[in-house]
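Residues determine shape. Take a concrete instance:
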Amino acid sequence: MTIDRFSAFTTISTGGNPAGVWVGDHLPDPETMQQIAADIGFSETAFVVPKSGLIRTIRYYSPEGEVSFCGHATIATGVYLGQTQGAGTYQLSTTIGIIPVVVNQLKNGHWEAALTSVEPQQRSIENGMILEALDALNWQLDDLDLALPPSFAYAGSWHLVLAVKDYNRLERLDYDFDRLKTFMIVHQLTTLQLIWQEGPTLFHARNPFPVGGVIEDPATGSAAAALGGYLRAIEYLPVPTKIIIRQGETLGRPSQLTVEIPHTGGIVVRGTAVRL
């Protein structure tokens, strides 16, 4: 087996979201995968084993538990496979379904991977739950941009989408770690997708991840896919379309995620990754 470290959604080692990529012949037992992920210490580590041809089995672990789907570790895995096995379309067999990942090398030499999510879903959120989340964030209801109403969104894992009117509100993120973690466990959330819209197709995002033992993710591919499905479902943008999400800047790890939203089906999340 080998363990590599990549940073996804960036072209520089000081940007993006780091992920571990463990590759072997057979998956370790869950306890061992958990321990490896905790030792590596990144928000997620992907565990990848051959299945047949271009199909791979993959599992994702944060330092505190298994995650059903992780976008940035999928992009990192795609780039690893491209660098070691060549460009092509790899099928990753996850616990939530098959995720196709198209991998190619760009003219500038960087490797890029594009995943297609499972079918997105949304579910409404009660007012009391919104207030509970805002209280844990130390935000007010008036901070929200209700043109993008709060919603639970899914594209492999569940996230709570909250949009704010002012970038300064997004920039000043100082939440109650334990209270937000409890809220997220109760509602089976992976992250909160906190967003501010700068332009018609440009969004800024921050993603608290206390359920994974991490204060904040600098780039969150699963939340980006969930956001794309949410925007399509509420008919906020004409489709097909493409949006850019900028994330990680306040953490000093600038990241860029490209999200392609088709008329129907899974959401495409595209990005580069570099070996650390």
